[in-house]
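Why do we bother with a discrete structure alphabet at all? Because it lets us treat a fold like text: something you can write down, compare, and reason about line by line. To make this less abstract, here is a complete entry for Cytochrome P450. Read it the way you would read a sentence in a foreign language you are learning: slowly, and without expecting to understand everything at once.
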Amino acid sequence: MDRLHAFYRDPYPVYAAARQAPGLTFVPELDAWLVARHADVLQVLSRPEDFSSADALRPDVVPGGAALAELARGIGGGRIVLSADGPEHRRLRRPLNRGLSPARVSAALPFIAGRAEALVGAFADAGEVEWMAAYARPLPAEVIGHLLGLDPDDVPEAIGGAGHAEELLFRPLDEEGQVAAARRVAALQHLLDGYARSRKKEPRDDMTGEIVRALAPGDGDLAGEARGEVVSNLQNLLLAGHLTTTALLGTALLHLLRDRRQWELLCERPELIPAAVEEAARYDAPVQGFRRTVTRPLELSGTGLRAGDAVFVSYGSAGRDETVHADADRFDITRAPAARHLAFGHGPHGCPGSQLARHQVRITLELITRRLPGLRPADGEPVTMAPTMIHRSPERLPLVW
């Protein structure tokens, strides 16, 4: 696990070597063939019939029996959009597309701006802040809670439970830690089940209502397989809608402030903020990639693959592909994009919340370049990246001004 986490904290040297090597590179830490070049990533994402998403997010850790017993007290086990293919994927994706439509996202912008102002206002006079805890985690949590229609008082519990779900499957925990995490996950599932049942009886125009109407149509109580499927997809949306944006809020600030010229330029020229958001996503993709399973014998980039082989499709590596992005290892908010980056995926499984994430980072940068132009990293505080591939972000980011 130590070797795996070391790779997770900085996978970019492995990516660079894989892009230069002929064919694909098998990476033992991933137990998969690494798809590292932009063109190959684009090809895999465009061919879901050849590269299935069924095992897109294989856990690093299998919980023990005591933790599994706690999970059995929850409500889940349904197929989620992330790991579905074909017609099933389209069915599960449809309510997300509706719930995260441009109109729905636009309607949420005043809420986002208001919460961003409040969060920054809470520490603006302090002269220092730990960015991840004070802003990068709370803002996306409140936003996804708002879109789901959760009571604000329930959002911390919901986000905490979602975080424990990730921890349980991707972090080494002792038995006591696993059981505690599993208990929080089961509690989250019952909380979401309560909201789903409420929307079934009294429909509302929020994302929970969209998912309930799409996955459990008709009259009557929420029950059976539909119940588990609704809860599983609500849990997945809660986790994905929070972690991806938190990651981008962390890395965007990290890379802007590491190069003082970039930060000062952004403060002087706020019209560059949309470009800065895209550069942050390209340079350090918030989700580094997902797994795909080969469905038939085929060849990719000169490497023969068998049915059942696993490939890891690296959005993070595609963003550093020198054949697509000139001087790709340099963070540059004035970069003229030569090609669309793949940080939010592509094709049927492209991130449905990408515009929501972009707006949150844009609003944040507009706010802090105006209110805290003297922002800089705290001296003597090394930044360590979280040991995970599903939300690349600093564990802590202490800042001063």
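What the structure line is telling us, in plain words: The mean pLDDT is 94. Strands lie at 25-27, 32-35, 51-52, 128-130, 289-294, 298-300, 303-305, 310-314, 376-377, 398-400.
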